[in-house]
Amino acid sequence: MSVQVIVLSGGSSAGKSSIARHLQALLPGVWLTLGSDTLVAALPASLRESGDGITFAADGTVATGEVVRRVDTVWSLGWRKSPGRARP
Which stretches within the chain are classed as H helix? Predict the structure, then answer.
């Protein structure tokens, strides 16, 4: 299974949100827009404070640990198998 992620990096008012909205309109499929603060705040503390979670390096590199990858896999499988789920 693959997960596609687009990371937009830039200063305040650089146009990241506008670019994200345009990409959502242009790209096939469903793309979610999440600010990094929102994503990190949604994680339990144990996944924000260890290599098992998600880390953001000063150069903009994003790394996911084993636990985050397992959670993503389970969530994705559950999403596809949910009865009555509307297909995007």
Answer: 16-26, 36-42, 45-48, 66-81
Query: Is 11 a domain residue?
Result: no
**Positions marked active-site:** 37
**Residue 2 is assigned to a structural domain of this protein:** no
Residue 23 belongs to domain spanning:
16-81
76 domain residue, yes or no: yes
Contact 23, 31 (CB under 8 A): yes
Rounded to a whole number of angstroms, the CA Rg of the chain reads 15
pLDDT tens for the 88 residues of the chain, in order? 466 778 787 777 889 889 999 999 999 988 888 877 787 788 888 887 778 888 878 887 888 888 888 877 776 676 555 555 544 4
**Does residue 20 lie in a domain region?**
yes
Strand ranges, E, within the chain: 54-56, 62-64
pTM, to two decimals: 0.48
